[in-house]
Amino acid sequence: MLSSLGAMIGRARGEGWAVAAVNVYTIDGIVASIDAAEAVAAPLIVAVHPGALGEAGPPLLAAAVRAARSAAVPVGVHLDHASSRSTIEAAVAEGVTSVMADGSALDFDANVAFSAAVVANLGPTIAVEAELGRISGIEDGEVVRPDDARLTEPAGAARFVAATGVAALAVCVGNVHGPTPTPPALDFDRLAALARAVEVPLVLHGASGLPDATVRRAIAAGVAKFNVNTEVRAAGLQAWREVLADPAADLVDALRAARIAQRAVVRAKLALFGAAGRA
Which of 33, 143, 224, 243 allows an S-S link to 12, with CB 3.0 to 4.6 Å? Predict the structure, then answer.
């Protein structure tokens, strides 16, 4: 059933678990993610990055919305890391239930103005997540160097949320987009201060590669949504490589293997986040 980000993460924060937002790039990725959620009776958010839209176009969003409507568990469809008003409007026209208005590359006042305008334009039916601070790493071709990363300040976060009216806040506390040689070290004192400073649920991007104990500690500190991307992509790619190493393998074999591999990663994340059985 098609559901909203706001309802999911508000409940998750209150009950001490977290929602998985799984980035998808193909219909097979959508199917694998929803299959995993149904298998463990977990709510789920299917997230589509503008980079994926550049390859697959709006039909990918439409497919995600159709799949969510027919799912046996609550599934939200989320536009991730959108810095363009036109991209956001196009995604809303396809039926997404939430968007991330990403003004993290802007200065504080410009980020407030951008995020507040998106909230005002979309109204109460579309939940808006925003990001304050800037996460380093690589995601869908965008590179943010460590020197350009900005940690989220609690006092600024309180002002930002009050000024924008966003439903969720993505924060930077040492998390990193993409693969890293060693697990990122999160600033848990900062995370706890952020949770005290704002009333809305916190979101952690760059969750791939974090040790299980770190994830559980982040949930206890107030994180109610994790974005999951790198590990799901890596599992799918590895399955393709293994199948296609056999010259007799068929495309259908590779698609099936990738779905199985991605489904296993998503299912494990849902269990780790405490989302299993919450549908």
Answer: 224
